[in-house]
Design goal:
alpha/beta, 7-stranded mixed sheet, 15 helices, binds uridine-5'-diphosphate-glucose
């Protein structure tokens, strides 16, 4: 192997032993050791405002148009045979109350999930462009692997894909900085190391070497919950043939609603591009972080990676990418605050932008970024504000200029099963600019919302919004709770 031993970090032996016992790869141990070193060195992982300058002067998406047609030789089919598409699929969507991979959620009519659309897109690409060898990988975690395999076995028995299994990291006892022990449930001694784990996972599973042996040089990685992240041929050709960059990040112009995630910046120390995740911003600089006119570009997590450069860069650093560590403080049993305090160390995939000389970023339109982080995002995606194209890409419906801004009451819609119980059919939102729902409101088929709508129910029991067309409305259903008593809600008997 090309992994060079690092200078050992004091106190790390116990972790190394524990990880070797679980058959963790050398690459994953090296990555974890790098993070552990940051912890014992007292690093905070913070990127203060005075260490960075806003990014500017990025190439635009428009400037990449036509790049596929400008390819020399055999053109796009050849380039596709040198390309692999990776979807990050290790997360569970716990914030939406899910215990399964978020990508298994139905997002369009007839039970069509994220993974259905992703699978169909890959099939379409392979067929349409004569590229049957286009590689497709899913990065799974121990929590998503079985369900994902079952899904593809059932719905796409013919589709070729490869699992990239992500690693596990030991949790660290906060008081002693030794491996956390929890005999009641030893599984809770481990945690996922964040999506920056893709690099040690590629190296440690041998996938990186296998891809290179198969002639694959370019990787397109994105979040599986972002249906805008399709394999754009002009971006691929621009990256491979014109940019000269070993690593390219797609960023979008930030709006007021893009307060989470990470933004692009220039490091004052290196003059190179860096990513600052919200977890890496010191409290006192949060104002600057949130100032979307100052830090104008956020990371879509659609990344293009040159695998030859990735391998060389990892080798140069002794078998790892020196990514900044994100420190999470939790209890070893996250549901029991009385259990011992631990650190969970994570890295972010996009922060690798700082590890490559000449890494670049390209500013792409919103169509490249349609993530589902909340049930409000899910509701919009399930509505007619979005359209599924023949190649299974999902985009804003042509007449819709901007995705409607939807705010749902967290008490009643934060979790997917609650959303599903209240929304029997997504309302038409293609002419809606803003929707605010407060209290338990049930939506049934035949409801159209236009302009800016606010619907309120102060009662505890769900009330159905009578199905019809509403334009710029402000409706309080509370009074009608008993009058229009829902079949399912127990309003009459309680009233
Ligand atoms: N994921 C894994 N393994 C992990 C953690 C996450 O596969 O250990 C996957 C997850 O399934 C999802 C993707 O990674 O598909 C992104 O994770 P998520 O938690 O949804 O995103 P954030 O980490 O909050 O943010 C990422 C970038 C951020 C960017 C944002 C855009 O880090 O910079 O702005 O995505 O949505």
């Amino acid at each position: 192997s090309n992994v060079v031993e690092q200078t050992p970090v004091p106190g790390f032996d116990l972790f190394r032993l524990k990880m070797r016992k679980e058959d963790c790869s050398t690459a994953s141990i090296a990555a974890f050791e790098n993070n552990y070193k940051s912890l014992v060195n007292g690093e905070t992982g913070m990127i203060p405002e005075d260490a960075i300058t806003p990014a500017s002067g990025l190439p635009t998406y428009e400037s990449t148009r036509g790049a596929a047609a400008r390819l020399p030789g055999k053109g796009i089919a050849e380039l596709l045979s040198q390309t692999a598409v990776v979807k990050l699929n290790g997360g569970l969507g716990t914030s939406m109350g899910l215990e399964k991979a978020k990508s298994l959620l139905p997002v369009r009519g007839n039970d069509t999930t994220f993974l259905d659309l992703i699978g169909r897109q890959v099939e379409h690409m392979r067929k349409q462009h004569g590229a049957p060898n286009l590689k497709f990988l899913l990065m799974n975690s121990f929590s998503t692997s079985d369900d994902t395999k079952e899904f593809f076995g059932g719905r796409f028995p013919q589709l070729q894909w490869t699992e990239l299994m992500q690693n596990m990291s030991p949790k660290i006892d906060k008081a002693t900085k030794t491996p956390a022990v929890f005999e009641e449930n030893p599984k809770l001694e481990w945690c996922p190391p964040g999506h920056g784990d893709i690099y040690p996972a590629l190296l440690g599973t041998g996938t990186l070497d296998r891809l290179l042996e198969d002639g694959v040089k370019y990787l397109f990685v994105s979040n599986s919950d972002n249906l805008g992240a399709t394999l754009d041929l002009d971006l691929l050709a621009y990256f491979a043939n014109e940019s000269g960059a070993p690593f390219l990040m797609e960023v979008c112009e930030r709006t007021e609603s893009d307060k989470k995630g990470g933004h692009l910046a220039v490091s004052n120390a290196t003059n190179g591009l860096i990513l600052r995740e919200s977890a890496q911003c010191p409290k006192e600089d949060e104002g600057s972080f949130q100032d979307v006119t100052k830090h104008r570009f956020f990371n879509t997590n659609n990344l293009w990676v040159n695998l030859v450069h990735l391998k060389a860069t990892m080798s140069k650093h002794g078998g790892l990418l020196p990514l900044p560590t994100i420190f999470n403080e939790k209890t070893v049993d996250p549901r029991n605050k009385k259990t011992p305090k631990v650190y969970q160390l994570e890295t972010a995939m996009g922060s690798a932008i700082a590890c490559f000389d000449k890494a670049g970023a390209v500013c792409v339109p919103r169509t490249r970024f349609a993530p589902v982080k909340t049930c409000a995002d899910l509701l919009v995606l399930r509505s007619d504000a979005y359209t599924t194209l023949p190649d299974s890409r999902v985009q804003l419906t042509p007449c819709v200029a901007k995705s409607p801004v939807v705010k749902l009451d967290d008490d009643h819609y934060k979790l997917v099963d609650k959303l599903d119980a209240l929304v029997e059919a997504a309302p038409s939102l293609s002419a809606c600019t803003k929707l605010t729902v407060q209290g338990p409101v049930r939506f049934v088929a035949g409801t159209t919302l236009k302009g800016s709508c606010r619907i309120v129910n102060h009662g505890a029991d769900a009330v159905t919004l009578p199905p019809k067309t509403y334009v710029d409305c402000d409706i309080d259903l509370t009074a009608s709770a008993t009058a229009t008593a829902d079949n399912d809600a127990a309003v009459p008997s309680k009233a």
